[in-house]
Inverse folding.
């Protein structure tokens, strides 16, 4: 399933908030690697990917992980 | 190691010590000399000691580079009036400065205490204060986020060295590189007693504050020989230990042991990513790889096909530590990498690998292996307290197949020499001439050891030991929380994840908003050891002395039958 840009942004934002509920997403630049910015460890990142997959109804393989580093990456991935 | 039984029979720690050089003119034993300086005398100064893989590229440091840089670091410490026994803390990843700091610190007879950089501000402050930190080496970003806001509480912290300081370093910090540039690169290591304190590693218990396990320079004898036996290290190896330097594996086998063998070690500062890890293994022709079950389980999820895309033909030996390695991973690795994973067992207090599957010995998937030559291990009967303590009577060594507390006969060189400022808890770690590990195990008929579980409430998550008390104490600082019980719940990747049961004060609603707030609160304060799950419980079970019964919470969580509960926790 392909999402609109706006839906993709909302889904990524809400998913990040599930992991880091007080994350300041407005202060997170679209091109910033959020694993660093939000201090996600590898387990957090795994949860993020699983929640993103469930939320988008889209299978996400390990090969796709490098395409999910930033907000822009994720929006691009989910909307194409 | 040729044949296990023969190696065990022929072994002596005195002979193992002969494999090292000692300081010139019989001036003692210093880890930094064994790890670096002695290789210069044998013509290996030009060999690459560290290949540092950073975000912006790769940088090689030879043994000569490392020797000179650590000399400068030692000179810097002296110029800052930081002397022997003074504690030098690091809050760093696997950056070149981590290694320079460690070695320079030992050259100055100061004590290295590496902290996990993913800790939140509270665990960091507790450890800096407990360990009497005088110096901290860290990054500008970590300093700004985790140290600067609480600096006024860090009494005794005299110097903060930043490895990436901006042109105008923050007030009260020192630009490490500029300061090193002003130091001479000559240094003579002072006479060093093998029993001089070298390392302070914090670990967590069931109760109370974190414990600072003290290790001495003589530990290097055990680091060196165990790396030969369990990791099969040889001078021309390219070795990758993926452990963070903030945990004991990242120091004993991430820094010391590989350098004493003169290998090239990889220092990879990046996050875990399956494809990138394979790329690192392939590009650098890694021959020996020491990693953790959580990472291996994540690689297993990525599948055999991904592994097959990379040239891993240089790999000769794979080992794992951190929590029990499930047999499926051992079997999967045989298919994916053409070789099994060798699990081994040890802990912060033991300083070096104690029980291991060896290259020369058939692996029993799921077993931690057999005791290292020079190490006597046994399983002791547990008393009513759940531990093998003498309070329940004399210790009783169990036979094959029986479950009890794993215990070790003290006497190997990397045995911890105490918990800093806490002799009481140190004494409690021994009974009947044995060191009690806190792990439950059994031995099979052929002498292989099998991990069963923890004898106490400590949580093992992603290879990290998490003390429930530290997490509970932090949660209690939230105004909504009046009581908390923290346990580990099974997780297919991490082994266990931290789950907190909290009782709310009157007036607070147990809703999703509060749950999210508590998760966020935990992450802000505790960082990587924060609870991942929060449950509300207004009726936490208590012992007769009023403590939360974590074991009962755990039994409920695991769905164990009611009848089993009485044996899980008894009032103490």
């Amino acid at each position: 399933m392909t999402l609109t840009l706006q839906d993709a942004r909302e889904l990524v934002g809400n998913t990040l908030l599930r992991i880091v509920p007080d994350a300041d997403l407005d202060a997170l630049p679209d091109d910033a690697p959020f694993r660093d910015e939000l201090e996600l460890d590898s387990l957090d990142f795994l949860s993020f990917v699983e929640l993103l997959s469930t939320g988008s109804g889209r299978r996400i393989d390990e090969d796709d992980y490098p395409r999910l580093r930033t907000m822009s990456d994720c929006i691009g991935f989910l909307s194409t | 190691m040729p044949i296990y039984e023969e190696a065990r029979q022929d072994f002596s720690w005195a002979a193992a010590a002969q494999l090292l050089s000692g300081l010139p003119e019989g001036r003692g034993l210093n880890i930094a000399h064994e790890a670096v300086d002695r290789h210069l005398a044998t013509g290996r100064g030009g060999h690459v000691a560290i290949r540092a893989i950073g975000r912006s590229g790769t940088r090689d440091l030879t043994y000569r580079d490392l020797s000179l840089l650590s000399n400068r670091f030692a000179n810097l410490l002296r110029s800052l009036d930081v002397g022997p026994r003074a504690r030098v803390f690091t809050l760093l990843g696997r950056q070149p400065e981590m290694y320079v700091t460690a070695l320079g610190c030992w050259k100055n007879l100061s004590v290295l205490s590496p902290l996990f950089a993913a800790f939140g501000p509270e665990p960091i402050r507790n450890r800096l204060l407990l360990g009497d930190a005088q110096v901290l080496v860290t990054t500008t970003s970590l300093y700004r986020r985790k140290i600067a806001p609480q600096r006024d509480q860090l009494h005794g912290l005299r110097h903060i060295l930043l490895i990436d300081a901006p042109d105008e370093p923050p007030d009260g910090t020192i630009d490490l590189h500029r300061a090193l540039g002003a130091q001479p690169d000559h240094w003579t290591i002072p006479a060093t007693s093998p029993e001089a304190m070298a390392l302070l590693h914090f670990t967590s218990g069931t109760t109370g504050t974190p414990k600072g396990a003290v290790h001495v320079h003589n530990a290097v004898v055990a680091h060196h020989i165990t790396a030969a036996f369990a990791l099969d290290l040889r001078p021309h190896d390219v070795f990758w230990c993926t452990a963070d330097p903030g945990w004991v594996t990242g120091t004993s086998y991430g820094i010391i042991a590989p350098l004493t063998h003169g290998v090239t070690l990889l220092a990879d500062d990046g996050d875990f990513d399956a494809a990138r890890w394979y790329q690192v293994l392939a590009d650098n022709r890694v021959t020996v790889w020491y990693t953790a079950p959580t990472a291996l389980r994540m690689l297993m999820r990525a599948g055999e096909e991904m592994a097959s895309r990379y040239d891993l033909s240089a790999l000769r030996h794979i080992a794992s530590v951190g929590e029990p390695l499930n047999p499926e991973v051992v079997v999967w690795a045989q298919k994916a990498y053409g070789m099994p994973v060798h699990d081994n067992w040890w802990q912060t207090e033991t300083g070096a690998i104690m029980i291991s599957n060896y290259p020369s010995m058939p692996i029993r998937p799921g077993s931690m292996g057999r005791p290292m030559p020079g190490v006597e291990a046994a399983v002791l009967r547990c008393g009513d307290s759940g531990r093998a303590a003498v309070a329940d009577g004399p210790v009783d060594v169990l036979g094959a197949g029986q479950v009890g507390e794993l215990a070790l006969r003290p006497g190997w060189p990397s045995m911890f020499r105490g918990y800093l400022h806490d002799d009481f808890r140190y004494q409690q770690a021994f009974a009947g001439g044995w060191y009690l590990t806190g792990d439950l195990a059994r031995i099979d008929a052929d002498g292989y050891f099998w991990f069963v579980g923890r004898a106490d409430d400590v949580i093992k998550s992603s290879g990290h030991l998490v003390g429930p008390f530290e997490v509970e104490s932090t949660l209690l600082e939230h105004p909504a929380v009046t009581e908390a019980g923290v346990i580990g719940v099974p997780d297919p990747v991490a082994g266990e994840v931290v789950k907190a049961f909290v009782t709310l004060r009157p007036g607070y609603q147990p809703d999703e908003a509060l749950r999210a707030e508590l998760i966020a609160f935990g992450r802000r304060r505790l960082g990587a050891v924060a609870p991942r799950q929060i449950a509300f419980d207004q009726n936490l079970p208590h012992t007769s002395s009023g403590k939360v019964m974590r074991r009962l919470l755990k039994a409920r969580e695991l769905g164990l039958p009611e009848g089993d509960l009485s044996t899980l926790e008894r009032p103490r």
Remarks:
- Chain B has 19 helices and 27 strands.
- The radius of gyration of chain B is 23 Å.
- The interface with chain A takes residues 118, 271-276, 294-295, 298, 301-303, 306, 462, 491, 493-494, 497, 516-517, 519-520, 523-524, 527-528, 532 of chain B (CB under 8 Å).
